[in-house]
Amino acid sequence: MTPSQIIVLATPVFLVLIALEFIWGVRRERSGRGRNTYRINDAISSIGLGMLSQMSAVFMGLLRIGVYSAVYTSLSLVPPAAAQVFWSSPLGWLLALVFYDFCYYWLHRFGHRSAILWAAHVVHHQSQDYNLSTALRQTATGPLLGWIFYLPMALAGVPPLVFVTVGLVDLLYQFWVHTEQVGRLGWFDRWFCSPSNHRVHHAVNDRYVDRNYGGILIVWDRLFGTFVEEDDREPCVYGTRKPLDSFDPLWANAQVYRGLLRDSIRTRRWSDKLRVWFEPPGWQPADLAASDPQPRFDITRVERFDPPMSARLRRFAAVQFTLLLGGVALFLWFADLRPVPQSMVSFVALVAVLWALNRVIQGATTIRRCLAIQAAALAIGGLAHLALGSFG
Ligand SMILES: [Zn+2]
Ligand SMILES: [Zn+2]
Predict the structure, then answer these.
(1) Is the pLDDT of residue 391 over 70?
(2) Is residue 263 part of a domain?
(3) Same domain, yes or no: 156 and 36
(4) pTM of the full structure
(5) Closest CA to 43 of 173, 132, 172
(6) Ligand nearest, relative to CA of residue 130
(7) Looking at 196, 223, 250, which one is the last position of a domain?
(8) Is 77 helix (H, G, I), strand (E, B) or coil?
(9) Is pLDDT at 392 greater than 80 in this prediction?
(10) Residue 289 falls inside a structural domain
(11) Is residue 183 a part of any domain in this protein?
């Protein structure tokens, strides 16, 4: 079974838990003991970005696992037979998971402190809500550079199958921590990534920003000086310091890259053209800082992006979302079994459908135009499939 198929099988579980969290939040809000943390527009946008991330991952197999396998085969420092026996033992599996989590910590930390890696990771942080749908909000460009951080595992002879499996475990673990409905958990919060300390990670408050990077273990943050506890006196404000203000899934993935590209073109010195990509997010070369200084972040001025939705638009979005979910599940289920050109055609058509849906949700187009774009995308996709002989 492929990782994409495992995600498809896990999706109903994700959706049931999302529904339960929503119902729980609504009931608590009614009784005055808490609040509902969901908005339909934000949740559809986040889950849509998860779909885009999973679909694009199909085409990045070479980066996600190909380079790893090549390094494992030719550069591993441990004799293959011994490595296979050790890493496939119960203790080996557990250590491989801890090893993966350690590498993930550093990828995640650099993901916040190096602009080019932030450009990929930012997608996970753009939601101004914090709930289980936020967990599914993932980058489509993460695999471009993420693989570098896991090469130590290949050098240590962790077999690709073990690597992929523990990677999936690490990712799936992180689903449940994206909730405001679970409070502090005592000792658990000090050892493991938990709802409380991951809320802090998603917050833009000065006290919280760039803290708590751990995936499964929060011990890494305590060891390397990036841990901070949630403080009830300082509620988390979620999102990014440069808000996306959009539900467009393509723009969500391109926002930071575009800013970096623009800065590196505009700045004069050649060294700055390069530095722009590797300095922490928000860094500006001296000439740009002088000519076009960025405003200081002020948490009191944070506004929530929330274009109004009519009851009709909500119903339309709910139906479209359900159909899209089915289409994406079919795509992911068969993706690794089909030739790449066929998969690419379906991918482009599904992304166009997703894009149009999100554009209508944010009020950038009408239902009629959205349907026209989607019909055109599906018709062109169908014709391309005919040309490729997919239906023959
Ligand atoms: Zn992060
Ligand atoms: Zn998160």
Answers:
(1) no
(2) no
(3) yes
(4) 0.95
(5) 132
(6) 2
(7) 223
(8) coil
(9) no
(10) no
(11) yes
pLDDT tens-digit map of 330-362: 999 998 888 999 999 999 999 999 999 999 999
pLDDT average, residue stretch 212-225 = 98
Mean pLDDT for the chain?
A: 95
Query: How remote is the CA of residue 337 from the centroid of ligand 1, in Å?
Result: 33
Position of tokens 């209508």? 360
Residue 107 maps to a domain: yes
Distance 262 CA to ligand 2 centre (A): 28
Q: In whole angstroms, give the CA distance from residue 331 to residue 8.
A: 10
The answer on 323 and 218 residing in a single domain is: no
Q: How far apart are CA 285 and CA 307, in angstroms?
A: 35
Q: Which ligand is nearest to the CA of 210?
A: 1
Interval 262-267 mean pLDDT: 96
pLDDT for 234 beyond 80: yes
Nearest to 198 by CA among 39, 206, 189: 189
Pick from 153, 188, 223: which residue ends a domain? 223
Residue-level pLDDT at 161: 94
The backbone torsions φ and ψ at residue 217, rounded to the nearest 5 degrees and listed phi first, read -95, 135
Domain with 360 in it: 311-388
Domains contained in the chain, number: 2
In angstroms, what is the span from residue 79 Cα to ligand 1's centroid? Answer: 36
